[in-house]
Backbone:
């Protein structure tokens, strides 16, 4: 009986291929909403979730503050690991990934290619105050360049 229910749920998966879902996280409310959507889809599609946190660091700052890289890397890893734990509590497999990059959008796209991701899920806006004024620079970049479908989740879901 349980196998039948699981088969029906996988058959109900709204994605053509939903085996690998990458959720971009930065600790913001919008990212939390994206995580909830990834968990919901992942449960239906029996997906592997990848939680990616990208710390944005301009190369110019790196020369002036080498310890900044380490701090940002640690923060990004903490956000990704916290998300992994949240997804695991929902009963789904999740791998925590973190990167430091001058372009979070580029890092998301490269990770999606490397991991052969079937769907990217991200919030409309992250923590950057300037980018909150529009759809979000990262979201716009990812939507325009992604190698797979992208789900952009508003913060008020």
Residues:
């Amino acid at each position: 009986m349980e196998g039948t229910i699981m088969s029906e749920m996988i058959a109900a998966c709204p994605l053509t291929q939903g085996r690998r879902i990458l959720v971009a996280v930065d600790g913001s409310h919008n990212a939390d909403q994206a995580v909830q959507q990834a968990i919901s889809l992942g449960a239906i599609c029996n997906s592997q979730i990848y939680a990616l946190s990208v710390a944005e660091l301009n190369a110019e700052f790196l020369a002036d503050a080498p310890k900044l890289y380490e701090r940002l890397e640690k923060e990004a890893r903490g956000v990704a690991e916290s998300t992994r734990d949240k997804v695991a509590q929902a009963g789904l497999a999740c791998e925590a990934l973190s990167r430091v990059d001058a372009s979070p959008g580029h890092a998301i796209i490269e990770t999606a290619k490397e991991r052969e991701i079937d769907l990217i899920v991200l919030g409309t806006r992250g923590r950057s105050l300037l980018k909150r004024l529009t759809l979000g620079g990262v979201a716009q970049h990812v939507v325009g360049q992604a190698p797979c479908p992208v789900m952009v989740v508003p913060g008020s879901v």
Residues 17-153 form a domain with the Rossmann fold fold (CATH 3.40.50.620). The helical segments are 2-11, 29-45, 59-64, 66-89, 104-114, 137-145.
